Amino acid sequence: MASKSAPEPEESPAGVPEPSDSPTSPTPVVAPASVPVLERVRRNRMGALAAGLLVALVVGLLLSVLVPGGTNLLAYVLLGLLLTAAVGATVRYLSPDRGFAAQGTAFATTALGAHLMLITGAVNSAGSGLLEDLGAQGPGFDDALLAALGAPIFSSGVLLCGLVAAVIAGWGARDEPGERPARPAGY
User: Fold this and answer.
1) Which tens digits make up the pLDDT trace of 7-66?
2) How many domains, in total, are found in the chain?
């Protein structure tokens, strides 16, 4: 009796190998599409607050260098409006809705940023007049920032900046109940 063995693969004509059951190269894996950073921030519950706080602190501290030494109302108003617009637009763009939570976020972060900007700038530029004439130096930027962090935050200018940012974040018609858009209208 002849023993049966496994059939040998037949060669195809012209030296082309037969396709086999096990592939020699791995199948390409399709990676999921990456989500943009702003969309990930928008999907996060605390994303608008974190981004608004970051913008308020960075813009506030950068603008504190521009705060004049003397009392100059126009400069204070313009710098406050720049900060307010930056934070209000950031919170409006990154919030999934325009409700009271977005308005509260814009109010609180703008109030903190305006307070840091005004107090740090005023204390930092306070020693630039008489003390320099006497050969002494006034407080530096780090001392001014510590003074701003230690001072109470309630002043009418700071609260006004916060209210304007809340209006910017919540401006527009209320959405109808149902599905909300991914981004607020107008952006």
Assistant:
1) 665 555 565 555 555 556 666 666 567 888 888 888 888 888 889 999 998 998 888 888
2) 1
> Is 34 within the bounds of a domain?
no
Q: Is the residue at 91 inside a domain? A: yes
Q: 140 lies in a domain?
A: yes
Q: Reduce the secondary structure of the chain to three states and give it as a string.
A: CCCCCCCCCCCCHHHCCCCCCCCCCCCCCCCCCCCCHHHHHHHCCCHHHHHHHHHHHHHHHHHHHHCCCCCCHHHHHHHHHHHHHHHHHHHHHHCCCCCHHHHHHHHHHHHHHHHHHHHHHHHHHHCCCHHHHCCCCCCCHHHHHHHHHHCCCCCHHHHHHHHHHHHHHHCCCCCCCCCCCCCCCCC
| 112/107 Cα distance (integer angstroms) | 9
Tokens 């919540």 correspond to 170
**Residue 99 placed within a domain:** yes
Model pLDDT for residues 88-132, shown as the tens digit of each residue: 999 988 888 778 888 898 999 999 998 888 888 888 777 656 556
Distance CA 178, CA 114 (A): 36
> Alpha-carbon distance 39 to 121, whole Å?
34
User: First vs last Cα of the chain: how many Å apart?
Assistant: 85
